[in-house]
Design brief:
- It is a single chain.
- About 40% of the residues lie in helices and about 15% in strands.
- The protein is an alpha/beta fold and about 375 residues long.
- It has a seven-stranded mixed beta sheet, with helices on both faces. The protein has a five-stranded antiparallel beta sheet with strand order 1-7-6-4-5, covered by helices on one side. A two-stranded antiparallel sheet has the order 2-3.
- Helix 8 runs parallel beside helix 11 (about 285-300).
- The structure holds adenosine-5'-triphosphate.
Length: about 375
């Protein structure tokens, strides 16, 4: 089975939730305030609002120079503004806004050297950044928000998370799904509550179950739902326990920190066997426990940490102590209801005369959603 990182980055379709569209609209509003003269802003935004109301989860805004034979005033206004912040040779201009900053920062595309504003490139990796591309015809293309997947550790890299998994496509028990969505909703709404009770605004999940039952898919669904970035912490690439904490510097608020296959990394270290020597894992169980406890008190707000394992019974009980994991989620073999979701996702079937027979078979045999998806 591929690793979480491989699976999460393997997709090319961008899926966006309602949250994403709402955030995008908000960002468009912000951008419009800064790009357009005041008298044009209202008209432009009401047009966008109309579009979003009817629109799918993806949106590109293209401002053409001419609207038929008529000159497009929005294009002229945007062009005038852009000329003041870019050099004549600029082909691409990126615009980003940090959560707590009021103004957008504008950054010239990858192949150009000049950058504007005080933000460095990392700020592009914020949730909900917008990309404005100026084509040779002078069109301005505003691309949709994207969730970022970053790999922490010595080979750290970031990519846009284009994993299409959502809670709708996830084949898990409907009751568990609802419980989890409610839990996430409660978590993001409870800033004041966490402050009042003096608790860090963090949440820990343990996902356990056999390979191919959807642990990585669930993490992607959570990220797409909350519009949080994902940081995938590869323990095997860390040199020491101290590296765990140092990696946090690269993470941001409103993010999910993922540590996968936790039993392998820790077990290997404790057993000190040949496999351990091969994997070069340098993180110890106590180092990890210290890190989790410290994480809860030392880093920013709105953080979710997710551990995954195929073997919960191998984990040290200290790891599962109350307060470390808020929710333990058992990902299990496919149920009849899960099967219905998968056939609706893949061949697009809602009904079939074989369904009853398959329902019976599925309850008799352990089969993973991944195996069914493969078929
Ligand atoms: N519960 C599920 N709902 C929908 N699709 C699933 C589910 N489980 C598995 N799949 C399909 O199988 C593929 C592999 O599953 P995934 O990587 O999420 O499982 P995993 O439990 O993380 O496996 P591993 O423990 O090996 O990392 C997914 O990309 C998806 O296509």
């Amino acid at each position: 089975m591929p690793s979480t990182t491989a699976v999460l980055s393997a997709y090319t379709t961008v899926t966006a939730s309602a949250v994403l569209v709402r955030t995008l609209l908000y960002e468009v509003q912000n951008l419009t305030n800064q790009l357009l003269p005041r008298n044009l802003q209202e008209e432009f935004l009401s047009g966008i609002g109309y579009l979003v109301g009817n629109l799918s989860s993806q949106m590109s805004i293209i401002i053409e120079e001419n609207n038929g034979l008529i000159l497009n005033e929005v294009f002229e206004a945007s062009k005038l503004y852009l000329v003041t912040i870019q050099s004549p040779s600029t082909q691409r201009l990126k615009v980003a806004k940090a959560e707590k900053k009021e103004k957008l920062s504008t950054i010239i595309g990858k192949d150009e050297n000049i950058s504007f504003g005080n933000e460095n490139r990392l700020n592009l990796l914020l949730p909900c950044d917008l990309e404005v591309t100026c084509s040779s015809r002078g069109n301005i293309l505003l691309q949709e928000c994207k969730v970022i997947l970053s790999t922490l550790g010595s080979y750290g890299e970031s990519v846009y998370l284009d994993h299409p998994s959502t809670f709708e496509t996830l084949a898990i028990d409907p009751k568990l799904k609802k419980e989890l969505i409610d839990d996430l909703d409660r978590f993001v709404k409870r800033r004041d509550y966490y402050r009042r009770v003096g608790k860090a605004w963090k949440h820990g999940y343990l996902l356990y179950g056999p390979p191919g039952t959807g642990k990585s898919s669930l993490i992607a669904a959570m990220a797409n739902y909350l519009k949080f970035d994902i940081y995938d912490m590869e323990l095997s690439s860390l040199q020491s326990n101290g590296d765990l904490r140092r990696q946090l510097v690269y993470t941001k608020n409103r993010s999910i920190l993922v540590i996968e296959d936790i039993d392998c990394s820790i077990e290997l270290r404790n057993r000190n066997d040949a496999a351990y020597n091969q994997s070069q894992t340098q993180v110890t169980l106590s180092g990890l426990l210290n890190f989790i406890d410290g994480l809860w008190s030392s880093c920013g707000d709105e953080r979710i940490i997710v551990f995954t394992t195929n073997y919960k019974d191998r984990l040290d009980p200290a790891f599962l102590r109350p307060g470390r994991m808020d929710m333990q989620i058992h990902m299990f073999y496919c149920s009849p209801s899960g099967f219905r979701i998968l056939v609706s996702n893949y061949p697009g079937l809602k009904n079939h005369h074989k369904f009853d027979e398959i329902d019976e078979l599925i309850t008799e045999v352990n089969v993973t959603p991944a195996e069914i998806a493969e078929e």
